[in-house]
Amino acid sequence: MTKRSIAVPAFILAVLVFISLLPAATSPSTPLEKKVKAMTDKLTPELIAIRDDIHCHPELGLDLPRTSAIVADYFRKLGLEVRTGYAKSGVLGILKGGKPGPVTAMRGDMDALPITEETDLPFASKDKAIVEGRETGVMHACGHDIHTTMLLGVAAVLASVKADIPGTIVFVAQPGEECCGGASLMIEDGAFRDIVPSAFFAYHVDDTLKAGKVGYTSGFMTANVDGFTLEIKSEGCHGASPWSCVDPIVVGAQVVTALQTIVSREINVQNNTVITVGSFHSGTAPNIIPRSAKLEATVRNYGEDQRQILKDKISRLVKGICEAAGAPFDLAYEFGTPSVYNDPALVRDALATAEHVLGSKTALVEQKPEMGGEDFSFFGTIAPAVMLNLGVVPPDREATAVHSPTFMADEAGIPIGVNLMADIILDHQVKAAKTKTAK
C-alpha cells in the first residue's frame, strides 16, 4: 500500500469530523429533501476521494482526457445519457426526470492552471506540463476540481430521486474556462442544439468565505474581459537627434497616461471601469529610438453597452494622440468574455431555498460585482443563469487565494454545496413545472 493511499482516508476522516462540527442546517421538511440530505451524506466520502484524485492529476485547457473520462464514466454509472467531444473534452450528462417539466442545466468546469503547487496536502499535484516552451507545474488553484466534484455529486443525488423530478437536468462538464473560451466552444459545437436549457446554475469557490457560507450577487457578477493590442510605428533614428523621427515610446507613454483620463473623466463613476496596460515593449538600446512600441491592455466593465462605449472612446483617444504625433499605428481591439449576469428572479428563488437548507440568513452573504471574468457568462446568452460563490476557506485561515500556489480549500464545503444545489434545482423544476401547468 502506497503512502498516498494511507494518507487520503485519514484526511477524509478529518474532513468528516469537521463537517460534523459545523452549525446544523434546518432539518429537511419534506420526504424529498430528506432523501437529498441522506444521499448527500452517504456520498460525501466518495466525493472527497474523487476531488482528491482530480486535484492530484490536474489537466490544462481543452485537452482533459483523464478528467473528462472520470466524469463520463461516473455519469454512465448513474444511468445518465452521456454525450462527449464538445470543445474537445466537454461532457454532457442528461438526467430525465419522471415527470413533465423544463430543461435546466448545471455547469462545472474541469481545467487547472499552469502553477506549481506549494502545499503540503497529501494529494498535492506533482504533475508537470510544457507551456509556451517551458516546463511548469500544474495545479487546481481555482477550485475547478471542487466544481467538477460537486457536479458529479449533484448528478448522483438527483439521479437517486429522478422519479420525483419534473423535467430534465443537463450536467455540463466544461473544459477550457481558464484559457480558451470553453463555454462558447461547447455552444459552437452544438452542445445545446437539440436540448436547450431554460436556466443554468453553477458554483465558484470563494476564497474569502468559510465553509457553510454562500455568497451571491444579483445582476452583474463579473466583468467583461476585453482588451487591445496597439503598435505605434516609426522609421527609427539616433537617440541624439530625436527630431529626426517619431519617438514611439513617448507616444506610447502619452497613450498610457491618457487612458486613465477616460476612466476618471469620461465614464460615470457608477459604471465601474478598469483599463490596465500590462505590457509595454520597445527598444533595444539606450541611444536608439526604436521603430515601434507595442502595448497590450485589458479593459474591464459591465454590460454590452458599456463595452462598446469603451471601445469607441479608446479608439478615438489612440487615433488622436498618434495622429497628433504623426505616428502610424495599428490598433486591434477584441471583445472577450462577457459579464456574468445573475438573473434576479432566479437569485431570489435560489436564496429562498438556500436560507432553508443552510438554516439561517446569516449564512448568505451579499457580494459586490467583481472585475474578474468568468466564461459561464456564455451560457447566460442561452437562458437566465445564476452563479453562487461557495465558501471554502480552511478553518485555520482567514482567507485563501485562488490562482496562488498555496491555495487550499476546505472540503467541508463540498457536501454543503451538493446538498444546496440539488435542492435549488429541485425547487426550480417544481416551480417551473407548476407555472407552465397553470398557463
Keywords:
439 residues; alpha+beta; Aminopeptidase; Alpha-Beta Plaits; elongated; 8-stranded mixed beta sheet; 4-stranded antiparallel beta sheet; 26% strand; disordered N terminus; 2 domains
> Which second-level CATH architecture of the largest domain applies?
3-Layer(aba) Sandwich
Helix % is 25-40%
Q: List the total number of helices.
A: 9
Rg over C-alpha atoms, rounded to the nearest angstrom? 25 Å
Proportion of β residues? Answer: 25-35%
Major sheet strand order: 1-2-6-3-7-18-8-17
Distance, first to last CA: 61 Å
Question: What is the arithmetic mean of pLDDT?
Answer: 93
- Please give the domain count: 2
Briefly note the CATH topology name of the largest domain.
Aminopeptidase
The first-level CATH class name of the largest domain: Alpha Beta
Order of helices and strands: HHHEEEEEHEHEEEEEHEEEHEEHEEH
Describe this structure in words.
It is a single chain. By secondary structure, the protein is α+β, with helices and mostly antiparallel strands. It has two domains: 25-222 and 339-438, Aminopeptidase (3-Layer(aba) Sandwich); 224-337, Alpha-Beta Plaits (2-Layer Sandwich). The protein contains nine helices and 18 strands. It has helices at 3-21, 31-56, 65-77, 144-159, 182-188, 248-266, 304-325, 344-358, 413-438; strands at 81-86, 90-96, 99-109, 128-131, 134-137, 166-174, 199-210, 214-216, 219-220, 224-233, 237-238, 274-282, 288-289, 292-301, 329-337, 341-342, 364-366, 385-393. An eight-stranded mixed sheet has the order 1-2-6-3-7-18-8-17. The protein has a four-stranded antiparallel sheet with strand order 12-14-10-15, with helices on one face. A hairpin with a 2-residue loop joins strand 4 (128-131) and strand 5 (134-137). The protein is elongated and about 85 Å long.
